Amino acid sequence: DTAVSQTPKYLVTQMGNDKSIKCEQNLGHDTMYWYKQDSKKFLKIMFSYNNKELIINETVPNRFSPKSPDKAHLNLHINSLELGDSAVYFCASSQVGGNSYNSPLHFGNGTRLTVT
Amino acid sequence: SQQGEEDPQALSIQEGENATMNCSYKTSINNLQWYRQNSGRGLVHLILIRSNEREKHSGRLRVTLDTSKKSSSLLITASRAADTASYFCATRNYGQNFVFGPGTRLSVLP
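Above: the input entities. Below: the structure tokens describing the complete assembly.
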């Protein structure tokens, strides 16, 4: 019974294509995130949604567009893929509202994106 | 800018030995958390220490926090081969963002 699930696990595609990664959490959390992990294992926040509202939008090319149809889902759509987009993308969720500063992040198992 | 910085970047020890990883950060925090990442998997939360705490234990894990030095350490005692993973610290202020360090790759040799 996976708490944060993301699909697909692997994604191999050519430059210029458009692709999507889906994420769902069944923990009832109010906030979801997308992180990018590069080849050196460095994790960088991309987006954060709180109750379907965009809260954090780091310096990410506008080719990346998150979509949150409801607070249990946060999908990531990437247009015109480039070689530098190759990385592992992690979805995560946490309870942020109220006095929940001590709620940790729960991660999915990642989507390894390879752009050729 | 990146908040947490772990050292060492990589650590190799024998089974049964203790492993110590350090994390430094730059700004004020509400709490600091440690996560483990096994190869090909997502990060898993290990332990959280609040800014008003100095030490915390969980099983074989011991975390310390020194807010005056803006640093934390994670000690894993009596290490096992299954502890082989990357370990990350993450800081959280009063917003929604968790900021991760670059991680320490721990190898525990049988």
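Note for the figure: The interface with chain A takes residues 2, 30-31, 33, 35, 37, 40-45, 48, 50, 86, 88, 90, 92, 94, 96-100, 102-103, 105 of chain B (CB under 8 Å).
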